[in-house]
Amino acid sequence: MANLNIDSVKARTFDAIVIGSGISGGWAAKELTGHGLKTLVLERGRDVKHIKDYPTTNKFPWEFEHHGQLPAAVTEANPIASRCYAFGEDSAHFFVKDNEHPYVQEKPFDWIRGYQVGGKSLLWARQTQRWSDFDFEGPARDGFAVDWPIRYKDIAPWYSYVEKFAGIAGNKDGIPELPDGEFLPGYPLNDVEEYFAAHLKTNYKNRHVISARCAHLSKPNQIHLDQGRGQCQNRDLCQRGCPFGGYFSSNSSTIPWAERSGNMTLRPFSVVESIIYDEKLGKATGVRIVDTNTKETIEYFARIIFVNAAAINTNLVLLNSTSSRFPNGFGNDSGVLGKYIAFHNYSAHISAEYDGLKEWTVDGRSPTGGYIPRFRNVYKQETNFLRGYACGFSGYRYQQHKYDGVGSSLKEGLVKGDLSPWGVYSHMMGETIPKESNHVSLDPKLKDNWGVPLLKISVDYDDNDEKMKKDYIEQLTEMFTSAGFKNIQPSTNHQAPGLDIHEMGGVRMGNDPKTSILNKWNQVHACKNVFVTDGACMTSTSCQNPSLTYMAITARAADYAVSEMKKGNV
Amino acid sequence: MNRRTVIKNLALVLGGAVLLPSCLHSDGTTFVQLKHIDLSADQEKLIGDICETIIPKTNTPGAKELKLPPFVLKMLDDCYNKKDQQAFLAGLLKFTDMVKTKYNSSFGDLSAKDREAVLVGIENSAKSNNAAKTPARRPRPQKHLQDDPLMAFYWGLKQQTIFAYTTSQYFMTKLVFYDMVPGRYIVHYPVSKLKLA
Fold first, then answer.
1. A26 φ, ψ to 5°?
2. Which residues of A touch B117 (CB under 8 A)?
3. I need a surface site. Which of A49, A227, A286, B96 has the fewest CB within 10 A?
4. What confidence score (pLDDT) does residue A403 get?
5. Contact between chains at B182 and A365 (C-beta distance less than 8 A)
6. In degrees, to the nearest 5, what angle opens at C-alpha B135 toward C-alphas B129 and B136?
7. CB A96 within 8 A of CB A115
8. What integer pLDDT is reported at residue B17 of this predicted model?
9. Do B79 and A70 touch (CB under 8 A)?
10. Nearest CB to B54; choose among A188, A399, A406
11. Alpha carbon distance A204, A302 (integer Å)
């Protein structure tokens, strides 16, 4: 360190440090600054300012160099990022390129990352379903992982809190396993989705098609207008960043809100190397970063630290934060750090056609679709596999063009064409069981450009996943058949874990410090001024899209952290 | 096509690291600066003529007027891998020879009717061999071309021409309406009210 004088240390000292500015880090920043804490937000990538740094957001297809197609050089250089559905000519600048940030795949793992202010909140699919006690009680009931230290009643008020601010469109569906929330008007189901919903209601017990709740401003409230956001304009170009702030991202919402408090210092280009632990004080005193431009190592200090580096990278930061107190990684007295990583199984889908309802279609575009909440093993164990899956379910029609031949008939065929029959499509979103063998660790030799060890990822499917996948295909085929759908085409793939972009765990919550890293307030058991509130904290995965739960957990933990600071406990 | 061009393209086809001087071009006129594939001016003209045959000028503009050929060439140059480009170039030679054998003329010198007949002939033979590769839905070109060179050439070119046309400003503003900001999602909407072009 060049400057160790008192002024320099003072300038590098804050009330709180937040590592990461993605969906959970943004919430930590908003909550902590909102309570008056001087907060340093560290982001390893560049800054992305709302609207100003969305270079493609208003481009027409013909304004892109390749009209939206990616050059072979890009896809060949980025086989991992290229497998993500959202990676395109309009959004590639928000994705980590494969060769810039290597990692070691002990088993295939498609690690999709967004290193910039806002992280992957710019790119997410914006689906926001609550968990219920059928999810939180899963591990205890079914005997895997460890019991969650929280229940629905602990998190419910915080779901409401974040939903009101983020803006969630949805309907009150009255389904106990997918609790209702604080909703803006929901997007409607279209005719074939309604038809299938009615079919399930009549013919199946406890199977529902609902409008998937999503983080879109269907009808903004004052709190959203105060954020400078407006109504979703149904563009369906979300991965470019939304100039209307129609969907929730850190960039459109929490980060500028934190900025306006006057309490936030945002430092991009800051890779966190480790958390600094003071043996005498028995607590963390700050973090050590590497400035990615200057390669300079700098230490920052604070009373509390929130780790929101995104699930896998949060594991990396903790594993790399060793001291004589924590020789095996920060807070890792139990030895479970980096283990029990899990994800969501998206490896099956099914499509079909429906011959009815031909006089109806839709006008405009929906930012969401239909959603079938988990119906397997909810109230009791009823299959040969544990847990279950939710299903996306959407119906669509499209104009059928004729591509045959050449010349004037082809020209006409490209413009004209009748509407197709209804098509329907579903994909599975399966819960996976966290296992000790699914883990991440530090490579003993390889390091990145900033001297941080490379991460080794060793995560795979298991037999439970295969059985669940088979069941999804069987159940959906049966439901589609009985609904009178034709040309039913189930298909499975072998997509690697990670491509779901729902990687979770490694720093799990639990009641017992011997088997978990975090307590019920997301505090590290062994170091109470460090909080982990991103996907790394997840004890189990259930099958809902997890971001909403990260937001609620973060807001809850931040509130607790502030009250503990006031009491002088941290 | 002259013999030297054939040799040059064969070298590309065989994937050899044979570097031939660029002065092999018969003249300097090219549509775009290509980085990965090497075409003679004659070959670029041929591609332009095929584009124009696929999307001819009628009462609306054709491929050349809409400047589709340079874009198609750019796409062939940028968006296909080496293997596909080699298949494409081999197919180009095959196509040229095929036309020469049948008509004793180059494609560009054929009547519009004969040009159409050449392309439709390839398409029909592909259909009978189950090798037709017209997109079923969105006119998004296939990422990888077929192994058969003539098929790789024809379908690669046709798909990219359709893509270039249907994503052109002219098409998306004058012939169909690309609704970038719908601002609405209405369900249970009568098909009869839909404004299909």
1. -60, -40
2. none
3. A49
4. 92
5. yes
6. 95
7. yes
8. 33
9. yes
10. A406
11. 55
d(CA A269, CA A98): 18
pLDDT (0 to 100) of residue B26:
40
pLDDT band, residue B69 (cuts 50/70/90): very high
**In terms of C-beta density within 10 A (0-12 exposed, 13-18 middle, 19 or more buried), how is residue A485 classed?**
buried
Predicted confidence (pLDDT) at residue B129 exceeds the cutoff of 90: no
CA–CA gap between residue A106 and residue A439 (Å, rounded): 10
Chain B residue numbers touching A401 (CB-CB < 8 A): 139
The first and second tokens of residue B134, run together, are: 């017209």
Which of chain B's residues have a Cβ under 8 Å away from the Cβ of A185?
Answer: none
Strands A422-431 vs A344-345: parallel, antiparallel or unpaired: antiparallel
Q: How far is B75 from chain A (nearest CA, A)?
A: 7
Residue B98, burial from CB neighbour count under 10 angstroms (0-12, 13-18, 19+): middle
8 Å CB contact of A406 and B167: no
Q: Please report, in angstroms and rounded to a whole number, the separation of the first and last CA atoms in chain A.
A: 27
pTM, two decimals, is 0.93
Distance CA A242, CA A236 (A): 10
Banded model confidence at residue B146, pLDDT cuts 50, 70, 90:
confident
Nearest to A139 by CA among A387, A376, A327: A387
Q: Is the pLDDT of residue B133 over 90?
A: no
User: Is B75 in the A-facing interface, judged by CB distances under 8 Å?
Assistant: yes
For residue B95, is pLDDT > 80?
Answer: yes
* Angle between helix B82-103 and helix B41-54 axes, rounded to 10 deg: 80
**pLDDT exceeds cutoff 60 at B190:** yes
Nearest-angstrom CA–CA distance, A517 and A17? 20
CB–CB contact A235 B182 (8 Å): yes
How many Cβ atoms are within 10 Å of A164's Cβ, its own excluded?
16
DSSP strands (E only) in A365-459: 370-372, 389-396, 422-431, 439-447, 453-458
Contact call for residues A523 and A418 (beta carbons, < 8 A): no
pLDDT value, residue B30: 53
DSSP A212: P
| Beta carbons of A406 and B194 less than 8 Å apart | no
- How confident is the model at residue B27, as a pLDDT? 42
Gap between the Cα atoms of A78 and A102, Å rounded:
11
Torsion-angle region of A376 (φ positive above 0: left; ψ -120 to 50: alpha; else: beta): beta
Polymer length of chain A: 570
- Position A6 scores a pLDDT of 75
Alpha carbons A118 and A22: distance in angstroms, whole number = 4
Whole-angstrom CA distances from B157 to A255, A415, B161 are 47, 20, 6
pLDDT at position B22 is 35
* Contact between A441 and A456 (Cβ < 8 Å): yes
Residues B81-108 have a mean pLDDT of 96
Q: Please answer yes or no on whether B185 and A187 come within 8 Å at the CB atom.
A: yes
Residue B3 is predicted with a pLDDT of 39
Chain B: closest CA distance from residue A486 (Å) = 18
CA B19-B24-B29 angle, 5° bins: 120
Low-confidence residues in chain A, pLDDT < 70: 1-4
